[in-house]
Design goal:
The complex is a heterodimer of chains A (68) and B (209). Chain A has 68 residues and is an all-alpha fold. Helices cover 82% and strands 0% of the residues of chain A. With 209 residues, chain B is an all-alpha fold. Chain B has two domains: 56 residues; 98 residues, no CATH class. Helices cover 53% and strands 0% of the residues of chain B. The radius of gyration of chain B is 24 Å and the shape is elongated. The chains are: A mainly alpha (68), B mainly alpha (209). At the A-B interface, helix 1 and helix 2 of A face helix 1, helix 2 and helix 7 of B.
Chain lengths: 68, 209
């Protein structure tokens, strides 16, 4: 697998995590119950944080392909 | 920011993230890289912060506190048609904001008070969903009610500072201010919610303007 493919794969993983976290957020914002507050902070916050950190890590962890 | 606007922003951000899942190759172009940074860093962080602020504000609302059925009788106690009921008198006369009535009295007006109130709320959730729910009349405060919470509003008020009962004994007012004489449990303002005795009380009907 080339570096480009690895970067794309990591971007996809980050995007999936962030998308899942954002959807959890959206549901919790519409669901006005105390448990929604916890799900928002715990599940939504966790997924978004892991997604963002994973994205930032993908930027610095892999070497760019050498310019042609 | 209204909740609906935040939800729209969050869903829009999720759709953009979905676009990156389906077509990661768009990041090959400079515009795609900027889009990826916005979608995978800026927007989610912004949505999380704005959403958290919205959740924190909503968690202060009276409706939020009363949404657990165990709190129904406490909500009912706010509508007792008797000025001797402390919580009802404060709620009905807007001595506390009616839409944040529970939070206004039950938060801690010291540093990290809101944070402590949220931690207490987490304990309530644990008991509500995973523990044994007590009867409403058996619910006790985590710690004795501190006069500081009353004095946050009443300190300096004429009715408090110059009230006849408060000044009948020169030691009373300093003791209240030092929290050595409780406003609530000293026998002066001890009828607060009294949820165990709400069956035969007359209730006030709230009419919105």
């Amino acid at each position: 697998m080339t570096v480009t493919h690895q970067i794309r794969r990591r971007l996809q993983i980050s995007a999936v995590l962030i998308m899942a976290g954002l959807l959890v957020e959206a549901v919790c914002l519409l669901w006005s119950r105390p448990i929604a507050f916890v799900v928002f902070a715990a599940a939504g916050g966790f997924l978004i944080s892991v997604g963002v950190l994973s994205f930032l890590y993908s930027l610095v962890s892999l070497e760019s392909p050498a310019p042609k | 920011m209204p909740t609906v606007a935040i939800v729209v922003l969050v869903v829009f951000s999720a759709l953009l993230a979905g676009l990156l899942v389906l077509r990661p190759a768009i990041t090959i172009h400079p515009g795609g890289k900027i889009l990826a940074f916005g979608v995978l860093f800026f927007l989610p962080v912004f949505c999380l912060l704005v959403g958290m602020q919205n959740e924190m504000d909503r968690s202060k609302s009276t409706a939020f506190c009363l949404s657990c059925h165990i709190m129904e009788s406490y909500g009912k106690s706010l509508h007792v048609d008797d000025p001797g009921y402390l919580a009802a008198a404060h709620y009905q006369n807007h001595r506390v904001p009616a839409d944040e009535a529970c939070y206004t009295c039950h938060t801690n007006y010291a540093m990290f008070g809101t944070f402590k109130a949220k931690l207490g709320g987490l304990r309530h959730l644990y008991v509500y969903y995973l523990g044994t729910q007590p009867r409403p009349e058996d619910i006790k405060l985590h710690e004795p009610f501190n006069n500081r919470e009353c004095l946050h509003c009443h300190l300096g008020a004429r009715s408090f500072e110059q009230g006849a009962t408060h000044n009948a004994d020169p030691a009373t007012l300093p003791a209240i201010k030092a929290n050595t004489l409780s406003c609530i449990s000293s026998g002066c303002h001890d009828v607060v919610h009294n949820v165990g005795h709400l069956d035969n009380v007359k209730l006030w009907t709230e009419t919105s303007q």
